[in-house]
Amino acid sequence: MFISQQLRKTNIAEYLLYMWQTEDIIRAYGFDLSRIKREYISRFDLSEEQRDEMTDWYGNLIRMMREEGVSQEGHIQINKIVVQQLSELHAQLMASPKFPFYSAEYYKVLPFIVELRSKGSKDIGEIETCLNALYGVMMLRIQKKEISTSTENAVKEITTFLGMLSDYYKEDKEKGLKFEDD
Questions:
Q1: How large is the average pLDDT for residues 53-73?
Q2: How far apart are CA 161 and CA 157, in angstroms?
Q3: Those residues with Cβ within 8 angstroms of residue 65's Cβ, 6 or more apart along the chain or in another chain
Q4: Per-residue CA distances from 155 to 90, 109, 148, 166 (Å)
Q5: Quick one: CA dihedral 113, 114, 120, 121, positive or negative?
Q6: Please, which of 13, 43, 155, 177 could form a disulfide with 166 given CB 3.0 to 4.6 Å?
Q7: What is this structure's pTM?
Q8: Would you say 58 and 33 are in contact if contact means Cβ atoms under 8 Å apart?
C-alpha cells in the first residue's frame, strides 16, 4: 500500500505492475484477509497503525475484486482506468510533432508489440500489451525461470518506452503537457 502510493506519484507503469502483483497476491491467498494479515502483512516492519491501514487497504481491494468479478483473472476498474489514461496519453504524444524522441522510441518497440499481439490477445491495446510483457517477465524472474536473450532485449526496449510514457504522464499530471504550439 505504501509502495503503491509512492509509485503512483513517481512511475505509473511500475505502479500498475505493483497493483497487478497485489491482485495476484490476493488471489494466491484465496481472498482471505485474515491469512493475508497473518502470513503476508506481518512480514513487513510496520507500526500497528500502519499494519491496520494496510489490512484495510487489502480488505478494500478484496471487496473491489469480488464486486467487479475479477476473482480469477483480470484487473479492477481503478487499474483499467490508469491503463486507459496511459493509452490516451500515448495517442496524444504520437499525434503531436512536439515529441519526436517518444515517437522514435515507440517505433523501436513496435515490432515487439506486433509480435506479442500475434501470440496473445488482439483485443488489448498496445500499452497494455507492453505492460503484460513486463509483468510476464517479472513473474518468470520471481519463479527463477530462464529468459531468452531476445526476450531480455525486447523487455529492455519496452521498459525504456514505458519509462518515457510514465515520465510524460507524471509531467502531464504535475504541469500539463502542451501537445500543440500555443
A1: 96
A2: 6
A3: 23, 26, 31, 71, 76
A4: 18, 9, 11, 16
A5: positive
A6: 13
A7: 0.92
A8: yes
